[in-house]
Amino acid sequence: MANGFKSKFSAGGFIGLFLRILAVSATIAGITYFYFNVIHVNATTIALSYLLAVLICAARWGLVESITASVLAVLCFNFFFLPPVITFTVADPQNWVALFAFLAASIIASQLSARGKRRTQEALARQSEMEKLYAVSRAILLIDPSQNVGKQMAKQIAETFDLRAVALLDRAKREISRAGPEDLAEIDDKLREAAIQGTSFEDAKERTMVTAIRLGGEPIGSLAISGTLLSDTALQALCNLVAVGLEKTRAEQVASQAEAARQSQEFKSTLLDAIAHEFNTPLATIKTATTSIISEIVENPGDLKDLLRVVDEEADRLERVVADALQLARVDAGRVQLNLEPHSIDQIVHSLCEEMRSMTEGRSVALVLADGLPLVRIDGELIKLAIRQLIDNALKYSSPPAPVEISNRSDGEGLVISVGDRGPGIPEPERARIFEKFYRLADDRSRVPGTGMGLAIARQIVEAHGGHMSVESREGGGSIFSIFIPFNPKGVSR
Ligand code: ADP
Q1: Cis ω before 84 (30° cut-off from 0)
Q2: Hey, is 410 helix, strand or coil?
Q3: Do 157 and 166 meet the contact criterion of CB atoms below 8 Å apart?
Q4: Ligand 1 pocket test target in 281, 324, 406, 455 with most atoms within 8 Å of CB
Q5: Can you tell me the distance from the alpha carbon of 46 to that of 83, in angstroms, rounded to the nearest whole number?
Q6: Measured from the CA of 481, which atom of ligand 1 is nearest?
Q7: Angle between the N-to-C axes of helices 63-76 and 93-141, in degrees from 0 to 180, rounded to the nearest 10
């Protein structure tokens, strides 16, 4: 591929060159005027003055300017100072030799200087390329694997190298990511060809380059850039960086899938443990009751009814455990399908209290419901389930006659539903953890039946609505659990 340091002449370039040639001509004319009209010196001094001017032009500008200077200097020297003066005739053949030596010295000096300058420019361009590559490599290390990686890399390359367009084809995903002000759609066939056959392509006029991205010799994609011609080394280094970036995210994704599978496996076994544990107590109670009934130990019809009530209550408890487990598995797998409709939270709380009447019997439950709260778009059944978990816990972790208080209010941006109790409260360090799956306070593990699933279910439901849950201590003892549901949730499909 051609080296990319040649520059195209633009209109601005031509004007600049024209001005420099004017300056060169003025310098030679000035020297000529000075020696012809102001002071008279010998021919060698004049020739050396011209040579000095030519060398300064060569060092300062380029080949074109210095050759112009040397040709003008030779012509002026010949016309004004070599006898016969004011003619281009050269009488003495030695002067011809002197003239050619002068011209050759000027050209060689200007070429050397131009070459030196080109080298410096190339070195500077290479240094700038290296700095940009370093910037890209740093950005690739910091890429966010949860977002589109190809798009992020294309954007980074376009910004760092200030390109018109960048197109990056990831062969594994069969996806082209673009960045830059232009979209470079016409290059797609070349991109595919490069990604499959490993070919390269360059259009110097359009300053567009396409090349394969290889990993271990195999093409894994291709990269097209437009707006500048990079050196071969820089382009290869850039492709290597992109290859590393693509591969790094691929490896991370594989690892996180493996981790997700492991977590799902762990979740299933913990769920089974919790269910098995929660099944044991009610099953043992049911078994004792039914054995007593079957073996006709119980003769009194009143006792028989009591035993049957125990069986009924324990069966309810089992049903709740199964329902909780299924619900948790559903919300944990992200399968919460929200059926959003406008609901009045008051109505939800009232119907919940109605449904929980048997559980709240003998308990003091106070409703402090604010007037005139707007309707909220929620999944009524799921939010009811979340509030139910809080009331369940408030009843379970506090004992009569301690009251349970259910209240609601608007806080401007959303609705807050709170359930307060006068139970033992939650120690500060444990407050975040109790919302985790299966987490239970050490004191409660043996004392109060439970699976540690209730708050996790409630939290997932509330978060699916764009809300959040919190717990705080209550003055005078106990805790208040609150659910916040925003009026205008972000990211919830309505
Ligand atoms: P479970 O009640 O089945 O154990 P939860 O997820 O509902 O599961 O609650 C997790 C833990 O948080 C409980 O085990 C208990 O230790 C603590 N907890 C929850 N609610 C209360 C409450 N109102 N008062 C005191 N502790 C509570």
Answers
A1: yes
A2: strand
A3: yes
A4: 455
A5: 14
A6: 23
A7: 170
C-alpha of 19 from chain center: 49
Q: Centre a 10 Å sphere on the Cβ of residue 310 and count the other Cβ atoms it contains.
A: 17
**The tokens of 399 are what?**
């004992």
pLDDT tens for each residue of 332-367 = 666 677 889 999 999 999 999 998 887 888 899 999
Please give the order of strands across the beta sheet that includes 201-203: 175-179, 165-170, 218-226, 208-215, 201-203
What distance in angstroms lies between residue 392's CA and the mean position of ligand 1's atoms? 9
Pocket lined around ligand 1, Cβ cut-off 6 Å: 389, 393-394, 397, 421, 423-424, 426, 434, 439-441, 444, 450-456, 479
The tokens for 68 are 């112009």
User: Which amino acid does the sequence have at 39?
Assistant: I
- The count of other CB atoms within 10 Å of the CB of residue 392 is 18
Nearest to 62 by CA among 112, 101, 100, 25: 112
Record the pTM. Answer: 0.50
Centroid of ligand 1 to alpha carbon of 387 (angstroms): 13
The answer, yes or no, to whether the previous bond of 401 is cis (omega within 30 of 0) is yes
Residue whose CA lies nearest to ligand 1 atom number 16: 441
| pLDDT tens for each residue of 18-42 | 999 999 999 999 999 999 999 999 9
Q: Which two tokens stand for residue 337?
A: 């399908």
Q: What stretch of H or E contains 100?
A: helix 93-141
